[in-house]
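agent> fetching stored inputs for the sodium ion docking request
agent> found them:
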Amino acid sequence: MKIWGAAELAVDALSELLGRIGWLIVLYVMFFGLADVILRYIFNMPSMWISITVQYAMVILASVAGPYALNNNEFVKLDVFYERFSDRTKAIIDVFTSVLTFLYLYVLITKGFEQAMNSLGRHEVTPTAVQLPLYHLKFVIPICAIVTLLVVIKKFSFDIRTIIVGHANRD
Amino acid sequence: MSTVVITLLMFVVLFVFLFLGLPVALGLGGTGVLFAMIFSPAVLTSAPSNFFSTPWQHIIVTVPLFIFMGNIIRFSGIAESAYDAAYKLIGHLPGGLAAGTVQVCMIFAAITGITPPATITMGQIAYPSMIKYNYSQKIAIGSIASGGALGALIPPSIPFIFYGVLANESIGALFLGGVVPGIMLAIMYSIYIITRSTIQPEMGPPIPRDRRFSVGEKLKAVFSIWPFIVLIVLVLGVIWTGIATPSEAAAVGAGGALLINLVYGKLSWQLIKDSLIFTVNLTGMGLWILIGADFFVNVFSSLGGQSVITDLVTSMPGGQWGVLIMMMLIVLILGMVMDDWAIIMMTTPLFVPILNDVGISTLWYGILLIVNIQVAYLTPPFGFVLFWIKSILPKNVYMGTVYKAVLPFIAIQLIALILLLIFPEVALWLPNKLLDY
Amino acid sequence: ADADSNNDEASADGPPDNVTEWVFQPAFDSGDAGWDNGIVPWIDAVEEATEGSVEIELLSAGSIVSGEEAFGATADGSIDVYAGWATVYGGQMPEGYLSYGLAMGAEDHEEAWEALWGDPDYQIGEIVEEAANQQNLHWAGWSSQGPNSFFTKFPVESMDDLAGHKLRAGGPQADFLETMGGTPVSFEGDEIYTAIDLGTIEGTMWDTGGVESMKFNEVIDYAMLPGWNPSQAQDIFINLDAWDELNDWQQEQIEGIFEDTYFETSEMHMEGVDDSLEAIEDSGGEVIELDEDEIEKMREKSVEEIWPKVAEKSELTKEGVDKYKQFLIDKGKLEE
Ligand code: NA
Ligand code: NA
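agent> prediction call returned; pasting C-alpha cells
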C-alpha cells in the first residue's frame, strides 16, 4: 500500500510538472503574440519567428495539458446517465470503458515514437522562412502519451480498489 | 460488412462508450483506433499525427488565450461589477440579463470569427452573475451557448472562409449573406428569453418594483462597466482596424485583461496562478477533444464514409428540393457527432458538384450550411459549444442539464433554417443589394 | 501486391494479373487548382497507361494526415502517393526547390523543362530524382502552375516600390521580398483575405492561378507579371517500396507519361492563370507587366543574394543551383 501511495504521488508530481510547462507556454504565447502585433504595427518590423514558435509551443501545450487535465479530473464526460450510478457501478463501467483508452494510448505511444524516429531520420525542419527542427517536437507527443498512460493506470487502480471495497474513498 | 454498416457501427460504439462515462476525448480516439485496427490500419499513424497538425493551426492559440483572458476578468471581480451594473440598467426586463448576454456573445463571437472564444469567455463571466440574480440555469446556459454559436454566421467568420474556398464562392458575398440571418436569430433568441421570463418569472426574474434604481444610480452603474467595455472594444477594435488578426487579437485581449487588473490594483501572483491552472486544464481537455475528433474523422473517411454520404444525396427523389433537404438533414445529423470544420471539409467537395448539377445557388447553400453548422454546435450529444460550456460550469452541473438548456434554442435555429429555405431573399438580399450578386 | 511480380518474366511485357491499389493524399484539397489541373489528369493518365493495373484512390489533405505531414507519411508508407510543393515539404527535401522553381529562374514552363530534363547539358531533374530516392520516394509527376507573384493594394512597377510595404509571404517568398526591400508578414491562408481587406497587410504573394479561388481579386488592386517565380511547380511522389512492387512494364508506362502530363497540366494551369488575371481586371484591378530592364535587375539580385541561400541547404541542392546558374548564363540571361 505504501509503495502504491508513493507511485501515485510520483504520477501526480509528473503531471504537475507537465502542467507547469503548460503555464509557461500560455505566458509565452501571450507575451510574444502581443509583441508580434506591436512590432508589426508600431515598429513596422514584423517578426518571422514569433508565429512559428507560437505554433510550435501550441503543439507542446496540447501534449502536456492533456495528462495534467486528466489527472485533475477535468476531461468532459457525457454524464447524462453516469452521474446516477453508485461508486461501485461507476468503477466497474470505468474498468470496462478504459479498454478503449488503453488502445488509444498504445497507438499514440508506438506510432508516435515511430513517427518521431522517422522525423529524426529525415532531420525534419519547418519549411518556413525561419526553420525550426521538428523532430524534437515529435518526441514530445509519445512521451506525454506515456505520462497519460501512467495517469490512466492510477485511475484504473482506484477503480479496482473501489470495486473491491464497494465505495470510493476519494473522487 | 458494407461501408454503411461499418460507418454506422463506428458512431454507435462511440456513443455507447461516451454515455458510459468515458471522457469524450478518449472515446473519440479509442473508437477511431478500434475501427482503424480492424478495417484500415494505415490510418493509425494519424492518431499521433493529429497531435501535431491540429494544434499547429494558427487559430488554436485563441483557445488558451481567451480562456486566460476570461479567467483573469472573472477572478478580479471586474466582470461581476459589470453585470451588477447591467442588472441595474436592464434588470427591470424579465430575462433582461440573458437577452443582453446574447447580444454581447454575438458581438464577441461575430468579430473573433470562431465560436469557442465567446462561449468560453462569456460562460465564465455571465453564468455566475445570472445565477446570482436567480436566473434559471437553463436560460443562463442557453443564452450563452446560442449567442456564442452566432459567431459562425456573422462576419468575419472562419467557417465561411473554409466553405468559400472549397466551393469557389465569393467570401465577401458569403459574409454579407450571413449578416441578416445572424441578426434575425439574435432577435429571435431575445424575444424567446423575454417572453419565457415574462410568462415564467422564475426563469429570469425582473428586479422587484420596490427595488428599482434611480437615474443617478443607473448613471453611476454605467461607469463601473468601463473596464469590461474597454476590453471588448480593445479586442474588437484591433481586429476591425486591421491592427491584428483574430488569432492575434486573443493575445491583445489577454494582455489587456492583465493591464486592466494592474490599473485596478487587483493583479496578484495568486490571480495569475489560478488563471493559469484553469487555462491549462481547460486547454488540455478541449484540445484533446479536437485532436480526437480530427482522428475520428480521418478514420471515418478512410472507411469510405464520404461515399456513403454522396450516395444518400444522389439517391434522393424530388429534384432540387429533395437534394437540398437531404443535404440539410445530413449536415444536421453529422452535426450531432462531428465538429464544424470536419463537416464543412467533408461535405462541401461532395455537395458542390451536385448543387451545380441541379442548379442551386452555392451562395444560398453556403448560408444555409453555416446556419446549420451553428445548430451543430448545440445539438446533443456532440457539440463543441456544449463541451466548452460544460467545462466552465460548476462541477455539479451535469451534461443532461446543458442538453435540456439548449433545446429551445435549437428549436429556434431550426425555425430560422426553415424560414431561410422558404425565403432565400432573407439571406440573399444584402449581397444582392451591395454586390449586384 | 505480389512482391515477386517485379522479376516475373511472364508479366514483364504487360500488365500483371493483380491490380495494385494506391492511396493518394496530396498536401492540398480540392479547392486548389492543383487538384483539377494537376493530380486528377495525372491519375487518369497513370490508370490509362497501366491499362487499369494500377488503381488510385484520391483523398483530400487531412484525410489520413495533414497536408504538412503528408510528404513524410508517403516516405514512411502510410500513404502511397503524394503531391505538393517544396514550400511545404522543403524542410525535409530541400532539393525540391529546384523543381519548385528558383527566384527569377526559368521564365515559363517550357524553359523550366529545358533546364530540368530537356537539355542533356543540365539534367537538373536527375538531382531531384536522386534526392527523392534518398527519401524513399520516386519522383513521378511534375506540373507548372505559372507565375507566383505579388497581389497588392499598391502598384509594383519596380522592386523599389516594395520598400516599407507589408505583404504576406512565406518560405522562399519571404526571402525574396526581404531581399528586394519589402517587409514579409507570416499569415496562414485563411487569414489573408480578411487581413488585406482590413488593412493589416497590403497584399500577398501567391500563385496567380490560385488568386481567383482564394477570392483575393475581391480585395487587391494590382497584380504583377512575370512574378518572382515565373514558373512555380508542384511535384508528385510515390513511395519507393510501392514503386518497386510494380513490374518493369508498369514502371515504364508511368515514366512514359511524365513529360506529356507535365505539358498537358502546365497548359491547363496557364488557362487558370489567365482566368485569374481576368478576374482581377473584372473586379477593377490592374495587371502590371514589368519591363526587361527591371526583370534583369531582379534576376541578377536573386542569383547573387537568394540562390546561395537555397544552395546552402544541401550538397545536392548546391549542385542543382550551380547548374541552373550555368543554364541561365548559357542562355545569355546572366553575366558570367
Ligand atoms: Na464571426
Ligand atoms: Na452537435
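agent> quick read of the result: Residues B 110, 113, 151, 154-157 surround sodium ion (ligand 1) (CB under 6 Å).
agent> awaiting further instructions
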